[in-house]
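RhtB family transporter
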Amino acid sequence: MISPATFALFLTTSIVLVLIPGPNHLYITARGLSQGRAAGLVSALGVELGTLVHVAAAAAGLSYVIAQSATLYTIIKWAGVAYLGYLAVRAFTSKQAEAGRPEPQPLRKVFAEGVLVNVFNPKTLLFFLALLPQFVRPESGSPALQVVVYGLTLMLLGLISDLAYAFAAGALGRRLTRAARSLRYTSGFVYLGLGVLTAFTGRQ
């Protein structure tokens, strides 16, 4: 059983990290600004489903295997960069963007994009490899179960943070409807920025 002291330390550390704006927050904000609150909320749910994928992979030991293989890590990293680049190009070249308003996407597609953005996010992978294992104690029981507990805790904290960004971006997006022309490239630049951040994320 995880000791209360260890869990409290993990909780404190996770809260601090979650409060720091990251790529997922940028993605959710872009969706909320361009398509409204519903899209922001759906993208937040997709992002956290992506976190759940990382939790399952870490518990199964797959994340460790990937971390030990420079080839597998590089494939995941550049697949993420390529996908974000595709989203940026689509945002810049869509017909509706040329008309002065962002292109709306079906919510199921927004959800799927949120999942992929986080699944291919090396920073999330590195969190589960570099930080989370430090809190796993063999004497506290099954390491896999501990990873699941810690991972779900992080996912819950992330969801709370993501939903806050989604609500804020959705509200701001409605207020800025008249400024659609100046906002039409918001999503594209955010996706492009996410790709650059991913490209420069190292294995240290």
